[in-house]
Amino acid sequence: MTTPSIDPRLVHVLTGEVAALQQHLGRVGHDLGILAQQLATVQAPAPQPVVHRPAPAPMRPQPQAQAQPRFQPPPTVPWWQRDGVVSRLLAAAGAGVTVIGVVMLVVLAAQSGWFGPGARVAAGATLSAVLIAAAHRIVARPGGTVGAVALAATGFAGLYLDIAAVTALYGWVHPVVGLVTGLAVASLGIGVATRWSSQPLAVMVLVGVAVLAPVATAGITSALLAFLVILQIAASPVDSRLDWVWLRVARTVPVVGAILLAVLTASIGGARGSELAPLLVVAAVSFAAAVAAWYSTLTRRPVDPVSVAAVVATAGSTLATATLFSRPVAGITCAAVAMVLLAVTATTRGLASPVRFVFAVTGAVAGISAVLVGTPRSIHAVTLLTVAVAALVTGGWTRSRVTAGVGAFVALAGLVAHTQVTSVDALTYPGTAAASGWASIPGSVAALAMAVAGVWASVRTLDDATARTVSASSFGIAGLYAITATSVVAGVEIGSDTGFFVGHGIATISWMIVAVVALVRGLADRRDGHTLLVIGLAVVAAAVAKLFLFDLGALGGLPRAAAFLVVGMLLLGIGTRYARAFADRAGTDVTDGAGEPAAR
Predict the structure, then answer these.
(1) Cα(253)–Cα(247) distance, rounded to whole angstroms?
(2) Does residue 303 sit in helix, strand or coil?
């Protein structure tokens, strides 16, 4: 007879379940004992029916949680032992040395008389082509990407420099043919980089050419600038598909730096006129390319700091170049830059606020530059203030804070220019006021118009009451200055010392009239009434302070008496109107409150 076999694992499981059940029953019994003692202290024990409950199901022993191992940071690997670091460094060093060798072969050999020009150029082109072909052969091999990138970068940079030398150094081909060929080579190199998804390839080509191009073009010349801007154009279409930040830097910094260096050299050397026409063309093309490249990134990145910085940098280099030319050319160039930036700011839908602000400020700077370099100094103030009035009116009409902010910025520049002609101190003495002359009157009138437009634009564009009041008050102060300058200078020109006193009396009365108008408008306007009332009361305080602190001591005779009489009557009238307005409001509120229950 065969003895049945017993599974030891089953015996172990049953033993654990029985042990767990004993522990559980022990805890239940202990808890029942404590409960029985608590009930005994509250009331006498009463016989309770015995309820037989089913025994609880056996519990399996809970497995003990295993201790989690502590996190240990991976060991630090020296940089030279990291994957791909040494190979990339060696490849980049080899590319740089090889490109330098190509330049030495093409350019320096000519200076030393080695070989013939044709042999040098052919050798450089052949070596570059061989390197590009070798890169295409090894790129698909395991681990061959690094070497392929270095070989291709060397080949394309060497071929581009070879074309630059043939065009600028030897003069064998027409500049247009050379630039078109260079554009084709650069575009081919950028195309290979995008196909391989290799930003380092594109950057190495641009940096290599930028560093060694001055050698191939014999210095900072028009040819160098042209070939650098061709590189910028060739690398710009990448922005519509890829976010290669370092490529944007590599294509913008060389051309902007070369333009600024050429401007500095021309300023020191005194070059002017037609000699600098290529420089202006290159600067304008660079600015246009930067704007187009930035626009292509809007669909993917609403805020691209590098592209925005490229637009600002190229705009600055264009403005710097314009200073080398005659007044009409300089003014038109700066105005064109301002119009492009402000048009982009005004017409681009969904433009991010930081980008809109940067472009608006840059456009305002370009507009101010157009006035300063394109007009005679005598009309700087009038021109700037007129532009400010146009911008403020446009901003207020369209409720555009950016446009109104540009107007305020230009208005500040115009006021600074006007104070150089008619300062505040010049209005305190007849002799200094007479020095301003009739020529300052148009600027003062333009400043007054700017102040009115500024107050209106502040009320229309600013939602915050505090900001609206501060902005409108600032423009109001400028308006008071303009009123005083106009009346005092005109009075001095008409009646000498007597006209000076009469002019100040008229200025005080005009201040008070402005205050009355602001208060009346504030009482009638429920939405913007607070701002206008604050401005009106502030101007009242300023007019009364001027009346007692300056007019009482400086004026005499009829002007002083007339100023006091007119200001006093205006104060009485506006005080009565102010009290009646608030009484009417209080009566209206009471009537509305009484009529509410009936309406209900």
Answers:
(1) 10
(2) coil
Contact 179, 167 (CB under 8 A): yes
Closest CA to 374 of 445, 438, 326: 326
Task: Report d(CA 551, CA 563) in Å as an integer.
Answer: 8
Domain ranges of the chain: 88-219, 473-583
What span, in angstroms and rounded, lies between the C-alpha atoms of 545 and 543? Answer: 5
Q: Amino acid identity, residue 465?
A: A
Q: What is the b/e burial string over 553-562, where b = at least 16 CB atoms within 10 angstroms of the residue's CB?
A: ebbeeebbeb
Phi-psi region of 219 (alpha: psi -120 to 50; beta: other; left: phi over 0): left
- 467-to-458, 464, 514 alpha-carbon distances in Å: 9, 5, 21
Residues whose CB falls within 8 Å of the CB of residue 312, separated by 6 or more in sequence, listed in order: 358, 362
Q: Dump pLDDT digits (tens) for 465-506.
A: 888 888 888 898 898 889 888 888 888 888 777 788 788 888
Residues 128-184: tens digit of each pLDDT: 888 888 888 887 777 667 778 878 888 888 888 888 888 887 788 888 998 999 999
Task: Tell me the CA distances in angstroms from 2 to 5, 8, 76, 374, one per residue in order.
Answer: 9, 18, 66, 119
